[in-house]
Specification:
Largest sheet: 5 strands, antiparallel
Structural class: alpha+beta
CATH class of the largest domain: Alpha Beta
CATH architecture of the largest domain: 2-Layer Sandwich
Number of strands: 22
Strand content: 5-15%
CATH superfamily of the largest domain: Sulfite Reductase Hemoprotein, domain 1
CATH topology of the largest domain: Sulfite Reductase Hemoprotein, domain 1
Strand order of the largest sheet: 1-4-7-6-15
Number of helices: 24
Length: 756
């Protein structure tokens, strides 16, 4: 009797391109060989990652947004509540959706897969992908074949590869765009997929496109490479081109992309990107993964040298007809409406009017609009996916796209159909308003499923959505237009750096307990393709973050000037005044009086990180470390204030000093009489904590220690605005890592203090 897997394989035969079918057969064989111990785990890990298959945290069936995960049925037919090894633990499957483009049939397949293999939830990411969680590795070949049969691949969705090519979801219908970037983005995605010049990277490589410079829909500035559409006149004719940027990225230390070419012709888009890939593969860091992104290579070489190397590489590239052929083919694939356009409706119920105001965007094509389907936290159920597929067929030519704000848009909706569309969406729980504003809080998976998660980003985001929704009728319009983004750790998967109010997860000690916190970041700019990055101002207990939002928005509504943005308001208010306003929220209540502070959002269990639990003895060593770490936090804040006053040299010097103070805090736990001089502190820190790997993050390795050593090497060089900004980012990360190291030490018996 054939298994269901074999039946699916036979049924899909002929629907999948032969080369892709062969790749999936190979992957299935590799899974079996790994089980037999015939493939090294390190090699197989990269293999499965390049197929989008991640390991994930499995936290006793608990999702920190308050929902319970169903029991999972694995290939054996058994139900399980918890894994024992990688091979019977559920993982995450990322599904690549170039420019977020989907059709109805693809939505239905995603629904089936979420229902059959996952926990009944499909999740839209901040890079327009889909993710399914709690997927067993044995099911991934069947899942991949079913996706391939409807034109979706998971290839290079993860791993050291070219990730999903993203683009503005309004491309082609936006009134403000220079031209439609969709064909060029799709052509680049096809060209780079599996390209031999893109198989030897040290880390990931993320491209993005935007049709204009002023909006945020494409977030080009936070990507490794990106194209912003431009038009200019040459010899009396209009020419299309791209402002082509390189070296952007968020992560622990964010970099703004730099202009590589102010006007790159479309015919040079693919070969130039190929040349960049070759330079990155050849010269990019391979051993130290913490510095293996393109942004670090450009920083080390300098932009001009990097441009020179790429242009030399471009000259020697063998001609490839696909450079223009793929673009020409995509230009022939134009969207069209299903129904005749009409006028925007007037009147109707209040909920419909709210939805029109926040979820409808008029197209440049008269009579049509783009409708945004709001997905709280990016989640959608199988039944909702199927209903959305039916709705897409009913009202459009199946023209859907996912967005970087974790929603789905329906393009080419006739204005006369908007009341019926809203009614259809509302009937299946997809009619929520508030798309793209303060109610539409973006969050990464955090501690729900991510192994790197420190605090419950989804739990916090869900709580903020609930509270803000309750206040919706009273919120000032300027407040409603703000953006909130939450990440579970410093890596910025929730894109906290480019939010009006950003938060990322950290932890702090309070006596014998560990307490979930979030760093508060202010000053980020969502517009202008992610035009400016916020800086952390203070770490606040997780349970006080809603109060932070309430105070900041309340003061903004009350004191802002006419037309003043939140960024300008915050700059005028200043870091000192802002921190003073939040000062009382820093305090951690006593455990016995407020035990809820010692649990994370949506999780009733006591909060822990790693092996740290309750009952650890702090003692004298703890008080010394806490004192020194508090001094480091203070110096770091002073550095931010100096930066705000444009005193960049002093800001950089003070930021470096805060790192030295945090290092000294740790050294003093073993060597009380360490001299205050930076050279000696760093020497002792290296010997006692870095070389011994006591100061070693399980996921970041020695990354944060290296930040201190590099800052020390460059301490005598003058700082500029960019280098001081980067050092401020690194200083906060180093201080947070020092807190984490101290927390781990507190869980262990105190070692005798040496005296030299």
């Amino acid at each position: 009797m054939k298994s269901s897997h074999d039946l699916w394989k036979a049924q899909l035969e002929g629907k999948i391109a032969p080369d892709l079918a062969r790749e999936l057969d190979i992957f299935e064989t590799e899974i079996q060989l790994r089980k037999q111990g015939k493939i090294d785990e390190k090699l197989f890990a990269e293999t499965r990652l390049r197929r989008g298959a991640y390991g994930q945290r499995y936290d006793n069936g608990q999702r920190h947004d308050g929902a319970k995960v169903q029991q999972l049925k694995f290939p054996s037919g058994e139900l399980t509540k918890g894994p024992t090894t990688f091979w019977d633990a559920p993982g995450m499957q990322r599904i690549k959706i170039p420019i977020g483009g989907l059709n109805a049939e693809q939505l239905e397949v995603l629904a089936d897969l979420a229902e059959e293999y996952s926990d009944g939830i499909a999740h839209v990411t901040t890079r327009q992908d889909f993710q399914l969680h709690f997927i067993h590795i044995d099911d991934t070949p069947a899942l991949m074949r079913r996706l391939a049969a409807v034109g979706i691949t998971t290839r290079e969705a993860c791993g050291n590869s070219v990730r999903n090519v993203t683009a503005c979801p309004y491309a082609g219908v936006c009134a403000d765009e220079a031209f439609d970037v969709s064909p060029y983005a799709r052509a680049l995605a096809k060209f780079l997929l599996g390209h031999p010049d893109c198989q030897d990277f040290g880390r990931k490589f993320k491209p993005a496109f935007s049709g204009c410079k002023q909006h945020a829909c494409g977030l080009v500035n936070i990507h490794d490479v990106g194209g912003i559409a431009r038009v200019r006149e040459e010899n009396g004719q209009l020419r299309l081109g791209f402002e082509y940027v390189v070296g952007g990225g968020l992560g622990a230390v964010p970099f703004q992309a730099k202009i590589f070419d102010e006007f790159l012709p479309p015919e040079e888009l693919l070969p130039t990107t190929q040349a960049i890939a070759r330079v990155f593969a050849r010269l990019g860091e391979k051993k130290n993964r913490n510095r293996a992104r393109l942004k670090f290579l450009i920083k080390d070489l300098g932009l001009e040298k990097f441009q020179e190397l790429v242009r030399e590489e471009r000259k020697i590239l063998p001609h490839d007809p696909r450079w223009t052929g793929l673009i020409e083919a995509e230009l022939n694939q134009q969207e069209k409406p299903l129904r005749e356009g009409g006028e925007l409706p007037s009147g109707g119920p209040d909920d419909f009017q709210r939805w029109l105001k926040t979820n409808i965007r008029p197209q440049r094509q008269k009579g049509y609009s783009v409708a945004t389907v709001t997905l709280p936290l990016g989640d959608i159920t199988p039944d909702q996916l199927r209903a959305l597929a039916d709705i897409a067929r009913r009202f459009t030519h199946e023209t859907l796209r996912t967005t970087v704000e974790q929603n789905i848009v329906l393009r080419w909706v006739s204005n006369r159909d908007l009341p019926d569309l809203y009614a259809a969406l509302k009937a299946v729980g997809l009619g929520a308003s508030g798309a793209g504003n303060i109610f539409d809080v973006v969050a990464c998976p955090g501690t729900d499923t991510c192994k790197l998660g420190i605090s419950a980003s989804r739990g916090l985001a869900g709580e903020l959505r609930k509270r803000l929704g309750e206040q919706a009728a009273r919120l000032d319009q300027a407040v409603q237009n703000l953006h909130i983004k939450v990440s579970g750790c410093f890596n910025s998967c929730g894109q906290h750096h480019v939010a009006d109010m950003g938060f990322y997860g950290v932890s702090r000690k309070a006596g014998n307990y560990t307490v979930p916190h979030f760093q508060v970041l202010l000053g980020g700019q969502w517009e202008n393709n992610g035009g400016a990055y916020g800086l952390p101002i203070v770490a606040i207990p997780s349970k006080n973050i809603p109060a932070v939002v309430e105070r900041l928005t309340g003061r903004f509504a009350k004191e802002r000037g006419k037309g003043e943005s939140f960024q300008d308001f915050y700059k005028r208010l200043g870091k000192v005044e802002t921190k003073t306003m939040l000062e009382d929220l820093i305090k951690i209540p006593d455990h016995d009086s407020r035990p809820e502070y010692y649990s994370d959002w949506g999780d009733t269990r006591e909060y822990t990180i790693g092996d740290i639990g309750t009952g650890e003895c702090a003692g004298e060593v703890v008080s010394i470390a806490e004192f020194e770490l508090a001094a480091a936090e203070r110096e770091y804040f002073e550095a931010q204030v100096l930066y705000e006053k444009d005193q960049v040299q002093k800001s950089g010097e003070t930021a470096f000093r805060s790192m030295v103070t945090a290092a000294r805090a740790l050294v003093k736990t073993e060597f009380l009489d360490v001299p205050a001089e930076a050279d000696r502190v760093i020497e002792e820190f290296r010997k006692r904590f870095y070389d011994t790997q006591k100061f070693w993050d399980p996921f970041a390795g020695g990354k944060f220690g290296q930040m201190l050593f590099i800052a020390h090497q460059k301490a005598k060089e003058p700082y500029n605005a960019e280098s001081a900004h980067h050092l401020l980012e690194e200083a906060q990360l180093f201080i947070d890592a020092a807190h984490s190291c101290y927390n781990k030490m507190a869980a262990q018996p105190a070692a005798p203090k040496a005296e030299g």
